[in-house]
Design a protein that fits this description.
Structural class: alpha+beta
Strand content: over 45%
Order of helices and strands: HEEEEEE
Radius of gyration: 17 Å
Number of strands: 6
Distance between the termini: 46 Å
Largest sheet: 4 strands, antiparallel
């Protein structure tokens, strides 16, 4: 019985520690999340910065290897005293977070 409990605990701990693959921000009662079209970024307010850079090809909350990244756009937005960073690859939001 102890072995079953130990294995179950280890599996649960491993599952909880895995990073989430989707991220989102809420602004003006609208949720903007990874995997959505880049056109939704207009809701984040005024674009304050934009550059070309290496971004993940698929939605991610962490960095990715060179084989899983490509050239995309990195944006920063500002609205109502809040600021946001978003990465876009092939017209899709692949990373988004509110800067604190």
């Amino acid at each position: 019985m102890r072995l079953v409990t130990a294995v179950s605990t280890a599996i649960l701990a491993a599952a909880v520690s895995l990073p989430a693959t989707a991220a989102s921000v809420r602004i003006d009662n609208k949720i903007i999340s990874t995997g959505k079209p880049a056109s939704e970024l207009a809701s984040l307010g005024r674009r304050t910065y934009s550059e070309m850079g290496r971004v993940c090809k698929r939605p991610s909350n962490s960095s990715c290897s060179d084989s899983r990244s490509g050239w995309g756009r990195i944006y920063q937005f500002s609205k109502d005293g809040r600021s946001f960073t978003a990465h876009v690859y092939d017209g899709t939001i692949v990373y988004i977070k509110e800067n604190r």
